[in-house]
Amino acid sequence: MGDNLKNTYLGAPARVLEVENLTSIEKLYTLRFLDNDINNKFNFIPGQFVMFNVPGIGEFPVSICSSPTRTGYLQLCIRRAGRVTKYVHENIVEGSIVYIRGPYGNGFPLEEMKNSPIVLVAGGLGMAPLRSILLYHLDTQHFSDLYLFYGVRNYELMLFKREIRTLLRGYYNVHVYLSFEDIDRGARELIRLYRKSIVRGMVTDALEVLRGSVPFEESYAVMCGPPVMYKFVVKKLLDLKVRPDRIYMTLERRMKCGIGKCGHCIVGTSTSIKYVCLDGPVFTYWDVLSTKGLIE
Amino acid sequence: MHYKKLPKEFLEEFINRLRKWGEVHAPQKKGKNTYFFSRLDDPSKVQIDYTRTVIPPTKKYVLRPVEPLMLFHGDRAEEHTLRTTKLVLFGVHACDINALKILDRVYLSEPRDPYYEIRRKNIVIIGISCMPDDYCFCKSMGTDYAMSGFDLFLHELRDGYLIRVGSPMGHEITWNISDILEEVSEEDIEYLKKFEKQRLSSFKRHVDISAMPDILDLAYNSRVWERYSERCLGCGNCTLVCPTCRCFETYDVWLSVNTSMRVRRYDSCFMVSHGLVAGGHNFRPTRLDRFRHRYYCKSYFDPIHGINCVGCGRCDEFCPAGIKHIEVLNEVIGEIYGR
Ligand SMILES: Cc1cc2nc3c(=O)[nH]c(=O)nc-3n(C[C@H](O)[C@H](O)[C@H](O)COP(=O)(O)OP(=O)(O)OC[C@H]3O[C@@H](n4cnc5c(N)ncnc54)[C@H](O)[C@@H]3O)c2cc1C
Ligand code: FES
């Protein structure tokens, strides 16, 4: 981990190959390192993140949303959320140079999950790191079945629309369920086409609707979403009889280094301190039980 | 361990000879009762009986309050290169030496912090024994004696100092200045024993740490946190003077139209921004959250390395609201027992 790049805080220069508007607030950036050696060596596990460094502006952590099976480039889905990300949206275009360091964090324990069914639960931007697992499965058939539950406010804000619409049509062992809080035009159209796969409400409502149709008892579950989501989804998953040792989640905290030095991402109490950047961002349900404050 | 003795009359000579291994920095007095580590030009100015410096020497010389990390010229980046001076820190107390070991664990674990590493490599540490004052609780934390982490350690004797040699660098120094050193006598050993006995019985503040991490964790909702956090001003002094607090924040500064610099500076978990993320969500929104967080971070029991606090007493001495770390701990612990 982190051995890919030699300069601890700088990272390596990368060129933006493509920028795609996903929604009004999220863009997908495809990047490639200038140094071919790094492109060849750069390897990561879904769930890991990189630090995205814009000279003179600042730096922030962002999950890798492409799959390690697709080499030679990296994809990052960036939401305009604050000062640096706003700058990125407005000024980083095709051809721009930024600095990338990483990959950091632990990533998902994919080996352990091999050949089991997996349930991905995404809320909003949480779809970004989970897309890495999704693409990984499409390329390697790593899981016996993949169930994606993706909750988003409305169709307008849904990420990766094209990919998800393709999968909705039915794809071998990948099953997609969407939940929308507001039914806008796009959502209405999807409901018309794929009635059984769309639920009005929260992602937990979608999970409830599929009680009995998804083999929750044998599945691994992985979730990512806004801080408020975790408590409710964990409760629902336990209620659906997902085994507690098979519940994984990826969390976020303020991060200034990504490598356990700056102290911002520390959580926990006197018996259990965790660094989200080193010990996470992927945590288990056992971690949640033994570390106060990990989820709210 | 290899032992030598430095006769008292050679103390200044000893300090002057140390200059061969770097610029000597030592505790000196500023104002009435405050001490600072700074360059020692005149060896007679050294405050060998100092209590504690405001900023821990070990932290001050490895982590700068503000420091550039890199320069950008347009898209081109350049690592900031350090001008490193070799330093000899003379007169470091055991608590601070033990605190430096905690910082080392953070900054020298992979991936290493290059700036820290370069500075750290260029520091020679000469420890010195001390008597506790009203604030010290290092004995409770098990950090009142340094068994490693120094090159030389001086123990006060009646007519000189017993020197413990703790590293190859320490050997090199003692080898080179052997003309002013003596062998340790039976009488010196007797004195050391007496000194240690007196030192150990002079502590006025204690906290029982064996079950402390669990008791504090169980007391998450204790009223004591709330009461103290209401008194706390949230100024962050305690984190600034703490020898093991090491959070930093980074930001960019423009030097010209196309040159900028990434800088880091000390940060404190008492600042509202410490747990704030984009979109306005704060993981530690209240003073209470932040107050408790610091106590938990300091009292964290690492299964391999032990507790993160070395009991130097700085946060107590320099808290403008008069909050005493050890009193808070004792009160929280007591409260659970008492129920
Ligand atoms: C492990 C991890 C993965 C993430 N993955 C993604 C992703 O795939 N896509 C995406 O759009 N966002 C992601 N984020 C959130 C993203 O880092 C923040 O949106 C971003 O830092 C906002 O920066 P800003 O400068 O625009 O905001 P400001 O509010 O101006 O923040 C200033 C600085 O504070 C820090 N900071 C602020 N918010 C966060 C935050 N939520 N997490 C960490 N540091 C923060 C950053 O260093 C940031 O530069 C992730 C965060 C983490 C911790
Ligand atoms: S991000 Fe700096 S310690 Fe985790």
State the largest interface.
A-B, 42 and 52 residues
Shape of chain B: globular
Derived from helix and strand composition plus strand pairing, the structural class of chain A reads alpha/beta
Radius of gyration of chain A: 19 Å
| Percent of residues in helices of chain B | 25-40%
Into which percentage range does the β-strand content of chain A fall?
A: 25-35%
**Helix-strand topology string of chain B:** EHEEHEEEHHEHEEHHHHHEEHEEHH
Rounded to the nearest angstrom, the radius of gyration of chain B is: 22 Å
Structural class of chain B: alpha+beta
State the total count of DSSP E strands of chain B.
Answer: 13
Q: What would you give as the CATH superfamily of the largest domain in chain A?
A: Nucleotide-binding domain of ferredoxin-NADP reductase (FNR) module
Strand arrangement in the largest pleated sheet of chain A = 10-9-8-7-11-12-15
Principal-axis shape of chain A equals: globular
Number of helices of chain B: 13
**Care to count the β-strands of chain A?**
15
Q: What is the percentage of strand-forming residues of chain B?
A: 15-25%
Q: How confident overall, as mean pLDDT of chain B? A: 93
Largest sheet of chain B: 7 strands, mixed
How does this structure look, described?
The complex is a heterodimer of chains A (296) and B (339). Chain A is an alpha/beta fold and 296 residues long. Chain A folds into 3 domains: 12-104, Elongation Factor Tu (Ef-tu), domain 3, CATH 2.40.30; 110-250, Rossmann fold (3-Layer(aba) Sandwich), CATH 3.40.50; 253-296, Dihydroorotate dehydrogenase B (pyrk subunit), domain 3 (Ribbon), CATH 2.10.240. Chain A is 25% helix and 30% strand. Chain A is built from 9 helices and 15 strands. Chain A has helices spanning 36-41, 83-91, 110-113, 127-140, 161-168, 185-193, 203-209, 229-239, 285-290; strands at 12-21, 26-33, 49-54, 58-63, 74-79, 97-104, 117-123, 145-152, 174-180, 198-200, 220-224, 247-250, 266-269, 272-275, 282-284. In chain A, the strands form 3 sheets. Chain A has a 7-stranded mixed beta sheet with strand order 10-9-8-7-11-12-15, with helices on both faces. In chain A, strands 4-3-6-1-2-5 form a 6-stranded antiparallel beta sheet. In chain A, strands 13-14 form a two-stranded antiparallel sheet. In chain A, β9 (174-180), α6 (185-193) and β10 form a beta-alpha-beta unit. Mean pLDDT of chain A is 93; it is low at 1-5. Chain B has 339 residues and is of the alpha+beta class. Chain B folds into 2 domains: 2-66 and 76-200, no CATH class; 212-337, no CATH class. Helices cover 34% and strands 22% of the residues of chain B. Chain B has 13 helices and 13 strands. Chain B has helices at residues 11-18, 57-62, 94-107, 114-121, 138-141, 168-176, 186-200, 212-218, 223-231, 237-241, 287-298, 314-317, 325-338; strands at 2-7, 23-30, 34-39, 66-73, 76-79, 87-92, 123-128, 152-157, 160-165, 248-254, 259-266, 301-302, 306-307. A 7-stranded mixed beta sheet of chain B has the order 1-9-8-7-6-2-3, with helices on both faces. In chain B, strands 5-4-11-10 form a 4-stranded antiparallel beta sheet, with no helix packed on it. In chain B, β8 (152-157) and β9 (160-165) form a beta hairpin. In chain B, α9 (223-231) packs across α11. The longest helix of chain B is centred in the middle third of the chain and has 15 residues, at 186-200. The termini of chain B are far apart. At the A-B interface, β4 and β13 of A face β4, α8, β10, β11 and α11 of B. The structure holds flavin-adenine dinucleotide (FAD) and FE2/S2 (inorganic) cluster (FES). Residues 255-258, 260-265, 275, 277 of chain A line the site of FE2/S2 (inorganic) cluster (FES).
